[in-house]
Predict the 3D structure of the following.
Amino acid sequence: MANFLQQVVSGLATGGIYGSLALAIVLIYRATRVINFAQGEMGMFAAFIALWLIDSGWPYWAAFFATLGLAFVGGVLVERVVIRPVERAPVVTVVIVTVGLLIGLNGAAFWIWGGDTRAFPSAFSTRAIHVGGVAFSIQDFGVIGVSLGAVALLFLFFRFTKLGLAMRAAALNPEASRLVGVRVGWMLALGWGFASVLGAVAAMMVAPTIFLDPNMMRPVLLYAIAAAILGGLESPIGAVLGGLILGVGLNLISTYVDFVGDALKLPVAFVVILAVLLVKPTGLFGRATVRRV
Amino acid sequence: MAALLELDNVEARYGATKALHGISLTLDDGSIVAVLGANGAGKTTTLRAVSGTVRRSGEILFDGRRLGRRGPEAVARLGIAHVPEGRGTFAELSVKENLRLGAYTQRPQAFKADYSRVLNLFPWMLDREGQQAGTLSGGEQQMLALARALMQRPRLLLLDEPSLGLAPGLVTDIFRIVRELNEKEGLSVLVVEQNAAVALETAERAYVLEVGRVVVTGASDELRRNESVRRSYLGY
């Protein structure tokens, strides 16, 4: 039982990371019908910048928030410079551009920082706390708090602010949004900015466990895509819950199903993608919109 | 009266297809003008040329200012609200969210007053603030689209086929509200209609289009009295 609870909590920690990256993917997908394959690489790049700031003597949280600011600006710039020119192109073209961006950022990180694996500091102690005889890691709770906190802030922003409403409207119905004076192009750019912030949070939270190197986010992105598809690519809440379900599920499977272990975790995520697409393509929480004609 | 909107030799095209072949039209400040004609005559395109949702050339003046290459976002900010044909609403959002979006370009402090003013015109919306717009009936969606446009505090309202698919009673309601707004608040309206009889009752002047050109224009009374115009262009 103790082991089970430990595995659930550490599953929630990784699941929160998958969920926040999955939410980043859903944000951009809803607005543009494109899966941004560079989402993980953008986060990796941000984590390298964070480490560089920390190594230059910045306190962890100062570096953390400065990195989020830079990630936001970076996300907006990527949309304006790289995505805008292909805005009206077919979806496949835009997807290929994001793949190009993935390769470009990966190459740039190798070129600037080299391919060595580096340790990344954690904001939280790796000590254990004991609750009712079960030992939990403080780091797991910290990671859950930060990733779900970022997600919650974003939900509040979309739900309760005028700008958040305009961003939702721009994604749902760009034509009608323009007619009420919403600058749709800028809403898309802001969306990329927020997605980039979520990716940076995910990367900085996962880096202490899987270490920092230019390829670190590849598997995380795959899990995040699986989580997004599981939750329904259209549903922000689904993406987060999908991430948590996947994180906990994979952790339990690799603990209790002997032949899976750690080695087969990634293929299991792939099976999840396939199964959802075959059985229920709208995912667990995606729904067709009610529309009376 | 001064002209609020002037179109001079306006052309518009969808890709390679020309939809307007040089339209000229004048709308006086505080008046209601109807654009009539058969399907494909260019009525909707005329409104879209004004709001900037179609590529256009020629000159459009609003309140003495050239619209030039302004896109729909910029045109909306000048005080022109366009209620497009059919669905001008955000189906996935609630009634209140639709109205908040209408007020997007307004100061936040003005929202409360503007909102209650709109609820006065459409009292049923009060109980249904939270309802998803896509689940409203056709008539309710049309009213919501109109209400959303009013939240923009426009000087000029562009109304595209407000009667489309609505029961006659509802059509009367919507036109009554438009007339009221025009009389009480001086709202100017450019309305496109298939239903010429209703439109001519409301508008002071009308332009009849045929394949992207103005073929007849005049005061509504004259057009209604003119038998040959009625038969050949208005179909009633």
Observations:
- The beta strands of chain B are 3-14, 17-28, 32-37, 55-62, 65-66, 80-83, 156-160, 188-193, 205-210, 213-219.
- The mean pLDDT of chain B is 92.
- Residues 30 and 183 of chain B are 8 Å apart (CA to CA).
